[in-house]
Amino acid sequence: MSNRETAEKTGLSVRSIQTYSGNLLQKLGTNNRQRALRRALSMGLTELGHLFETKSH
Fold first, then answer.
1. Residues 29-55: what's their mean pLDDT?
2. pLDDT at 19
3. DSSP structure string for 1-56
4. How far apart are CA 20 and CA 25, in angstroms?
5. Minimal CB count within 10 Å: which of 1, 15, 23, 52?
6. Taking a C-beta distance cutoff of 8 angstroms, is the pair 17, 8 a contact?
């Protein structure tokens, strides 16, 4: 998801998303979102299960 898409979805500015993303990447010791996700998963900071859940109507 792009910074613009994230901003639209969250109601934050693109600049805020850029700042927050940069801070997160720095804290995780990487400069790449894919590596940051892998690091967060390996540290138990997040899970991917919610990405595969289906919404019931």
1. 86
2. 98
3. --HHHHHHHHT--HHHHHHHHHHHHHHTT-S-HHHHHHHHHHTTS--SGGGSPPPP
4. 9
5. 52
6. no
